[in-house]
Amino acid sequence: MHYLAKLLFLLLFLTFGCNNLNKISEPEVLYKSITLSPQSHIYERPVARTERLESLKEGENIEILQDPKNRWLKIRTPSGKIGWIESRDVLRKEYLEEWNNLRGRIDNRQPQMKGDTLDDAYLRLRPGRDTVKVYKLLGAKILDIFDVAHTERPGANSKTDAATTPSKIVQNNDPKNSTSKKKKKSDPNSERKFDTWYLVRTPEGTVGWLYAGLVDIHVPEELAILAENKVIVSWHILTTSKDLEGKERPWYLSIEREPNSNKDFDRVRVLYWNAKKSRYDLVHRIQDINGIFPIEATRIDQGEQGQPTFKIRYLSKEDANVIVVDDYELTGTQVKKTSSITETLEIPQEQSEESTDNSSP
How many CA atoms, within 13 angstroms, populate the side-chain half-sphere of residue 100? Predict the structure, then answer.
């Protein structure tokens, strides 16, 4: 009996010891990140001449186990191998946090429009050619677009040295459906050139800023022909009705601006389908405003309860630090303002970051 008790004690001791040994041998994960280079090599030790354990493609999820604050990081790969990778091939922790914040910024927002990528494209942490690339989209993808921004094109404006001056964000919009227009001498931006950027989200939930030249925006043709020399930067369907042939016709909330303007938008129109005249007619127009994204709209189709609504934001003409927020309701072919409040404009703080490849968007 005494022998059996000792044996049982020994088994318990060995089991407890093995469990603790497993816990000790299991390295602690500092944080998770992704690889940035098209091909990242994982080495046995933090020396490039040592054996390569594995090679990872761009965008691979990895676990950071040690950060000696030098050119190397100890990581665990998706396959479970533990080795060392050059820190330049990994998205830095502070950038990863900013990227996650970017996701949260649009979580509960309505897309302003949709588009398709034309080819492989890089998502960036912020708008601008010299900002950090965080993800590479492979092939054509359908995108939800939430915001639009412009940055001055490096080397294309005045005598500014693009290598030493970071891109300056200008909150205006120039989607791909814009039409060219001769610039007036009175236009302060007539000699300035800009890159346009979209804040996008893919069907998989990946977010980032994408160069607008790599995106195809599909403005409905019936709406595009009614633009009246404006640039349509966003649109929403408020409701629908049937034409004389029984075809569904959308009623549009059209968000527009002048070409070469530095505003998000300066005109809002509501257009309805006039069945008797078989054409679109104007219901309501709001113009000469310095509009700010996002636009919010609620769609109510025929037969559903409630009325279509929309909300617009624009800078106060009396105080540039104040935003006016107006709510509207569409009843029949009448639009009425239901409320108007003011908010204080939040000015984003300048953030510094290391310059990256600025040879292409």
Answer: 11
Sheet with 72-76, strands from edge to edge, namely 31-34, 61-66, 72-76, 82-86, 39-43, 52-57
What's the token pair of residue 301? 């189709």
Q: Is the sign of the CA dihedral 313, 318, 322, 325 positive or negative?
A: negative
Question: Most distant CA pair in the chain: distance in Å?
Answer: 104
DSSP bridge pairs for 282: 271
Where does a domain end: 197, 218, 239?
Answer: 218
| Residue 40 CA: distances (Å) to CA of 57, 70, 84, 359 | 6, 17, 10, 21
- What values do phi and psi take at 93, rounded to 5? -60, -45
CA distance 51 to 83: 10
Q: What's the one-letter identity of residue 175?
A: P
Amino acid at 25: S
Q: How confident is the model at residue 8 (pLDDT cuts 50, 70, 90)?
A: low
Q: How many domains does the chain have?
A: 3
Tokens for 126, please give them.
Answer: 């912020």
Q: What is the 3-state secondary structure (H, E, C) of 126-143?
A: CCCCCCCEEEEECCCCEE
Q: What CATH number should be reported for the domain holding residue 63?
A: 2.30.30.40
Looking at residue 138, what is its pLDDT?
Answer: 81
pTM for this model (two decimals): 0.68
Smallest Cα–Cα separation from 289: which of 317, 269, 309, 319? 317
Single out the residue in 65, 90, 115 at which a domain terminates: 90
pLDDT by residue (tens digit) across 43-64? 999 988 889 999 998 888 899 9
Cα–Cα distance between 193 and 87 in angstroms, integer?
35
CA–CA separation, 77 and 60 (whole Å): 8
CA distance 217 to 224: 12
